[in-house]
Design a protein that fits this description.
Layout: H1 6-9, H2 21-50, H3 62-87, H4 94-110, H5 117-138, H6 142-176, E1 187-193, H7 212-218, E2 222-224, E3 227-228, H8 234-243, H9 247-250, H10 265-270, E4 275-280, E5 298-300, H11 306-310, H12 314-324, H13 329-337, H14 342-356, E6 362-368, H15 392-399, H16 411-441, E7 448-454, E8 459-460, E9 466-467, H17 474-477, E10 478-479, E11 481-484, E12 492-494, E13 498-499, H18 503-510, H19 526-529, E14 542-547, E15 565-571, E16 574-579, E17 584-588, H20 603-622, H21 627-647
Helix pairs in contact: 2-3, 2-4, 2-6, 3-4, 3-6, 4-5, 7-16, 14-16, 20-21
Length: 663
């Protein structure tokens, strides 16, 4: 009778994993951190060698948040490997597991490179093969994973201290060093609706009821019917809002980082004892990397929440869009932008008020991005006006609107985009009402100056142009402006064209801090505070500039013509536009608000051209640009204007009063 050999009877069942589960997860986390550090190298490479703007395009916490997200994601992959090994009859070998994890770690970082995903996967697999051999060998010794993890976590702590820790320390020091504020100091809330043009607001007569809340609050303050931005896109407009300097003085049309030579409104108010806080939803043009955060004791742009932390990495962003928010186009909009919507901005600001105000007066800057493309409104507002996007193709068009060539845009889709734009404005308006009611409920409005405006408009085929930053017609440069102030008369309307370059001067005037103010221009409050019969006040000219990179390219020596820029002036019911090639346009805004009939070649237009040329020459002469701008295009432009003015000395037309030479 046969018996079982003793050695067979005592044989143990082979391990069901390639190596112990805990070690698998530990090594996955270690490799994830290594992949995260590789991703940091790629981010630095793109900033200095690939990205013309020299931006990181990520939150200031990225030195620690990017490795952490990589570690979490690859740690999850390690857990998946453990589960697969447990359910498989035959476990995956250590070499295969190591190769898989190393490849994923490298690939997650290389996905940030401007290469096809398959190419980066092949490259990652090739690089991962020799590395995985060493990892498989070390994996047999458990302490190696713990030592490696401890070292990588130590580096992570250092990076966190140098980024978020340093930021927190600077915030604390800035808030602690504030001087005592003036007695009875007022608060200021500056609300900027990004990409909201005045012609689409019911406040200004638009037939769709897009802004009932803004209209209601405007009846409690002052409404300006023709507020003009200094530039038709975000960054130069905001830099002007904060400094009072023209874009051509700041170089902000092409240099996208605000230098330290010009004082900012936040910095000036902080020096007077104000807590200064900013919440910017436009992470493309208003993030900390633009320098617009200078002077703020607290500035929030990229939200620090789990979805947005995931979005700091390429695989995390893919997971957000394709798993967590699949089919939710509104959520996808904000994940792509790495930004918060109006509700989130309001909540963050109101939460800050409850936690950190400390009894001091405050200056709050709130930038809302909801009406910017892609024009995806919240679900409850979708279809409120006109065409409702229904199919995935409709939503894809809205996401791709900026990149679709204008000649291929179909009429139905353009109308849908404009209707969705109105839906977005309506959602913004509701959030404005919510915010102002919350401030009133906290008893703050009676001692707060609130300014509601926009940074530029938007075109939907008007004059055959789309979006913004492409022309100087009113659809791109006319924005809302409502001021609520304890000093403001109730329900007053100002019809004089005004420049938003005067915002800093207006704020310090309303706070009683004009003495010693570094901001040029004049307070817009002078337009509502003059006594009957008093002479018209001095105001800044309603000047707007658009400049492109080719304005700095070499031009012909034998001509004054310079391509790549335009200047615009609005006064006395007319809009004058002149570019660097000498092309001129003139529109009567009272009879032709859509600016369809160019009056330059008419008898009426010829009489007004001389006056506008003189005004434009005077403004540019009294307010010279930076050295770079003067040398590139302003000197010949002014020379050309001067020759025209001297050749045609027509009698001046009555115009709105403009400011003298600005300090």
């Amino acid at each position: 009778m046969e018996t079982t050999p003793p050695e067979t009877a005592t044989r143990q069942r082979p391990s069901r994993t390639s190596f112990p589960p805990v070690e698998t997860i530990l090594w996955a986390t270690v490799l994830g951190l290594c992949g995260g550090y590789l991703d940091l190298v790629v981010i630095l490479y793109k900033k200095y060698f690939y990205n013309d703007l020299r931006y990181f395009w990520s939150g200031s916490d990225f030195p620690w948040s990017v490795p952490v997200v990589h570690a979490v994601l690859l740690g999850a992959a390690g857990v998946l490997v453990v589960v697969v090994n447990w359910v498989r009859p035959r476990p995956i070998s250590p070499r295969v597991v190591a190769w898989l994890l190393v490849t994923l770690a490298i690939w997650a970082a290389l996905l940030r490179m401007p290469l096809y995903g398959v190419c980066t996967l092949i490259l990652a697999a090739g690089l991962g093969r020799p590395i995985s051999t060493a990892v498989a060998a070390y994996a047999r010794r458990p302490r190696h994973a713990r030592y490696a993890l401890a070292g990588l976590l130590g580096l992570l702590i250092v990076l966190a201290a140098l980024s978020s820790g340093r930021t927190a320390l600077l915030r604390y020091r800035a808030a602690s060093a504030l001087p005592a504020p003036p007695a009875g100091a007022r608060n200021v809330v500056l609300i900027v609706w990004d990409t909201v043009r005045a012609p689409n607001l019911s406040l200004y007569g638009y037939p769709r009821l897009t802004t009932p809340n803004l209209a209601e609050w405007a009846r409690k303050g002052v409404r300006y019917t023709l507020a003009l931005v200094p530039a038709p896109w975000t960054y130069p407009s905001h830099s002007c809002f904060f400094t009072g300097q023209w874009p051509y003085r700041l170089n902000s049309q092409w240099n996208y980082t605000l230098d330290a030579t010009n004082p900012t409104l936040a910095g000036y108010l902080a020096s007077r004892g104000y807590l200064t806080v900013g919440f910017a939803a436009n992470t493309r043009c208003c993030s900390y990397e633009t320098g617009l955060d200078r002077g703020f004791t607290r500035y929030e742009d990229y939200p620090l929440t789990v979805p947005f932390l995931l979005g700091r990495t390429v695989p995390g962003s893919w997971i957000n869009k394709n798993i967590f928010s699949r089919g939710d186009y509104y959520a996808s909009k904000w994940i792509d932008l790495q930004a918060r919507d109006a509700r989130g901005t309001n909540d963050s600001f109101l939460d800050w008020l409850g936690r950190e105000r400390r009894g001091r007066p405050f200056f709050a800057f709130l930038n809302y991005y909801d009406a910017h493309d892609p024009y995806i409104p919240p679900a409850e507002y979708t279809g409120r006006f006109g065409i409702r996007p229904k199919s995935p193709e409709d939503y894809q068009f809205l996401f791709d609107f900026r990149d679709v060539p204008k000649e291929t845009k179909q009429t139905r889709n353009i109308l849908m985009a404009r209707d969705c734009y109105d839906d977005c404005i309506a959602s913004l308006d509701d959030q404005l009402g919510r915010l102002l009611e919350a401030l009133r409920g906290r008893g703050l409005l009676d001692n707060t100056v609130v300014i509601i405006t926009g940074d530029h408009g938007e075109s939907f085929g008007d004059h055959s142009v789309f979006r913004h930053g492409s022309a100087l017609y009113l659809d791109q440069i006319a924005v809302p402006l409502v001021i609520l102030s304890p000093d403001a008369p109730v329900g007053q309307t100002v019809t004089t064209p005004v420049s938003l370059r005067d915002l800093p001067a207006t704020v310090v005037d309303q706070l009683g801090l004009s003495a010693g103010s570094p901001f040029p221009g004049h307070s817009l409050a002078t337009l509502w505070s003059r006594a009957p019969g008093q002479a018209p006040p001095l105001i800044t000219p309603a000047l707007t500039e658009l400049a492109h990179a080719n304005a700095f390219q070499p031009q012909r020596e034998d001509t004054l013509s310079r391509e790549g820029f335009q200047m615009s002036l609005v006064a006395s019911g007319r809009h004058y536009i002149r570019d660097g090639t000498g092309s001129e346009q003139l529109y009567d805004l009272l009879r032709d608000p859509s600016e369809l009939v160019n009056l330059v070649n008419s008898a009426e237009g010829s009489a007004a051209l001389g006056a506008f040329r003189r005004i434009l020459l005077r403004v540019l002469t009294d307010n010279p640009g930076s050295t770079e701008v003067e040398d590139a295009y302003l000197k010949p432009y002014k020379q050309w204007l001067k020759s025209l003015v001297q050749a045609k000395s027509s009698p001046p037309e009555p115009m709105a009063v403009f400011e003298p030479k600005t300090p």
